[in-house]
């Protein structure tokens, strides 16, 4: 019996999706059960997509400029890399070479 998709957290929906995929790939599920599992899975995917969209909106809202005015920037995990400052060499480090 399918679990209600609206009550899932992102993590629980992903866990359930992984379980469904494993069960569906086992070749032990009758066709009708496969269809039911597929239907449940599509609902879980929608739950995950909705929660990811909400998280992205929150990230956009959180970013504020120096004047404390709202500055919305789209979230692009591939395009934004955090540059770390180069470590400072100490006198102790200089003696290692």
Structure explained in plain terms:
With 97 residues, the chain is mostly helical. It has a single domain, classed as Orthogonal Bundle (Helix Hairpins), CATH 1.10.287. It is built from three helices and no strands. α1 (10-25) runs antiparallel to α2 (31-62). The radius of gyration is 23 Å and the shape is rod-shaped.
Mean pLDDT: 76
Write down the CATH class: Mainly Alpha
User: Shape from CA axes?
Assistant: rod-shaped
Name the helicity range: 40-55%
From the alpha carbons, calculate the radius of gyration and give it in angstroms: 23 Å
**In the CATH classification, which architecture applies?**
Orthogonal Bundle
The CATH topology annotation reads as Helix Hairpins
- Total number of strands: 0
In short:
Helix content is 54%, strand content 0%. It contains 3 helices and no strands.
Keyphrases for this structure?
rod-shaped, 97 residues, Helix Hairpins, mainly alpha, single chain
Note the topology.
Elements: H1 10-25, H2 31-62, H3 91-94
Helix pairs in contact: 1-2
């Amino acid at each position: 019996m399918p679990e209600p998709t609206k009550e899932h957290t992102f993590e629980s929906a992903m866990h359930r999706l992984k379980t469904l995929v494993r069960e569906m790939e086992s070749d032990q599920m009758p066709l009708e059960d496969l269809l039911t599992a597929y239907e449940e899975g599509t609902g879980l995917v929608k739950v995950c997509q909705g929660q990811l969209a909400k998280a992205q909106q929150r990230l956009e809202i959180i970013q504020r400029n120096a004047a404390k005015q709202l500055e919305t920037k789209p979230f692009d995990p591939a395009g934004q890399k955090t540059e770390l400052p180069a470590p400072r060499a100490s006198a102790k480090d200089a003696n290692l070479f």
